[in-house]
């Protein structure tokens, strides 16, 4: 287990042993990450906090180096990660592994408990975490400011603890410490008041009055101010020997009956091990630390099994709560639509605690106070089920640290987390194995084994939602002679699936459960919910939601937060939202029922235009030298995203690729034929460079089918060419050649010289893969001759390099070198980085095969750097392979092995198995090679 320290020198300990986290500047980087643990820190923030005005020449490179070393140092702690995030870095860790967060948690718990003994113990635990000056050994303006902030937090906690000790009558024991602190902080009025009280209670009234006079004069001279009203009031109390300065007297404890209100335990329960452990851990920490009342908030959508989990855990842990268990269904999301008033719930608890009706006071505050008095000091569990919001829950929270509270709600209860340190437990759906186990538990494993395919389909259609699985199991149990295949067939059609998951009982209906959630939101939020159900793809980002809904960003954000709060959607990544499959079906059905068809079509057109035109702009950033394909202006209300640079464009494509694929499928169903082709075109650079070869093939298969419907010969030729390229990259030469021959024929019929040239370049690639470099050279030369009169220097540069590449593979190194140098010069003049990278790669190949291995390394490393800059992981894999070969030729086995391992990972990720097999053979051979002699 890893532990981090900021409250002293900055350090890390792994399983009780110190970890070397580097020199001061590197420790400062770690401190910046830890102070904002689990939140991203931008490059600009690092620059300001770590280096201030003395920035290194390459901040990003230096910072990357520090982060890399920190990752290596913490490699033995898998629970800690440092990842790139939104232009900076994000350190992910359990905050309780950081002493600063432990300190703050303990202090918050101490301040929120009503039990003075427990609070004082918590303050003492918090203060024991300090080991001297915070961030010791570091120096920067940010460190100085942060150190001062933390010192003030420590002083405030010490003063809070002193207040508690004064209430316990420990004034004599505190005198020495308070005298020293008052000397160190002569203007701290709270500290002065504590010192004066301790002096007064020790029989030193005159000394207390003298200290007041000292601080009064100091405030006047240094600040030109008088003592604060509270300090002046204390002065008057001491002058008059006010009896209220005495410590308060403890009240006797009230006894009560032992309620047992839990409903029956779940019949069949599966999975949820992580959530059960989290609930237990929260109570264990409370017990170990003497913390205030522990509150766990189980959140999730309708039917996900929140009550199921709460009751399972409660029955597993009954022995922890010998003084009783209270349970109430707060009806936050129920058919009546009217949540239970907190006063009604409190009165129910008072009745369970044997308070006679006549003894229940009037007013919620008085009732709550009586309830808290009755449970104070008792080891009790309070389950608040189906809460609507934080306001409904707060009056029902006990003040006793011996109690535990489990709240379930579709609302995220952020207020409860913020104000009461509730432990949020987000409940997701079951995985396939758990879902199958649940069905087997309800129906018996034999019935599932008899129809394994039907059982798998039922699991798939229910998408892990326990309520849906329960409905299916109930229907199957009520009709034991019905085949599971028949039930699966009912769920197959998305239009009727929700109806099939309805037993007629609102308590066992997925549709009803979701309807109650929708009924709890505002009409404008419901409209956004319905439109989200129409959106293609697994999730949606905020800018896309703006176009879909035709609403300003602030209104869309507010609606999304409201939907997330009631668990209809989930923000699974910052700014990105998704729905459970059955929730999406419900939203889409709701939209078809309540939104006119023209409104639905307009919304989809806006969203499709957002995706298409943002993708087009992103492609222009990635490949500015590519001939654009005009797609017309976007819809008036569509708001394509403005992307800043290549890295932003690449990140956008990576995030949106599943949505773009789904959008192409949507427009194909709708018959928006030109958009099908335009989407394929905009995705080509991204798919080919990133090695997403199956996606590359899929989008152009759709484009080819559309071209046939349009009888568009130009698009047909282009689609065949791109499909030929996709199949070639996938290692399917026969399919590639078939498409490319059709592309040549279609281009030839139209006299399209440019398309023919493009196709010949791909044919050269295919014949190279087949081992026929002579034929490949012929096609590359033909492409070069076709490009030259067209006035397309970028394509001419590509062809020059390709001719040089095939000449090099044929051993014609002088001609190859001349062609590649010409290609390199032309690409550099055009600022064509992809072409520069390819030419450098070929020159590296020539140098390597002519015995100039060190020169080859230089070419390859330059090419590799450019691949990284433009996001070309497809070619990066090939360059890494050749870089490894050059290292191996120089007997630099470690460097060669490193390069080949990187290439192997890329080949496998891109499903390029021939390349992966080749590199693996090279690695195996290297492992059996004799050790090199002499220095590497």
**Low-confidence blocks of residues:** 248-256
Distance between the termini: 38 Å
Number of DSSP helical runs = 42
Instruction: Look up the CATH topology of one domain.
Output: Arc Repressor Mutant, subunit A
CATH superfamily of one domain: Winged helix-like DNA-binding domain superfamily/Winged helix DNA-binding domain
CATH class of one domain: Mainly Alpha
Characterization of the model:
Helix 28 packs antiparallel against helix 29 and helix 37 runs antiparallel to helix 38. Helix content is 63%, strand content 7%. It has a 5-stranded parallel sheet with strand order 8-9-10-7-11, with helices on both faces. Strands 1-2-3 form a 3-stranded antiparallel sheet, with no helix packed on it. The chain has a 3-stranded antiparallel sheet with strand order 4-6-5. It has 936 residues and is of the alpha/beta class. The chain is built from 42 helices and 14 strands. Among the domains are: 168 residues, Winged helix-like DNA-binding domain superfamily/Winged helix DNA-binding domain (Arc Repressor Mutant, subunit A); 154 residues, P-loop containing nucleotide triphosphate hydrolases (Rossmann fold); 79 residues; 76 residues, Winged helix-like DNA-binding domain superfamily/Winged helix DNA-binding domain (Arc Repressor Mutant, subunit A), CATH 1.10.10.10; 102 residues, Tetratricopeptide repeat domain (Serine Threonine Protein Phosphatase 5, Tetratricopeptide repeat). One of its GO terms (molecular function) is ADP binding. One of its GO terms (biological process) is regulation of DNA-templated transcription. Belongs to the AfsR/DnrI/RedD regulatory family.
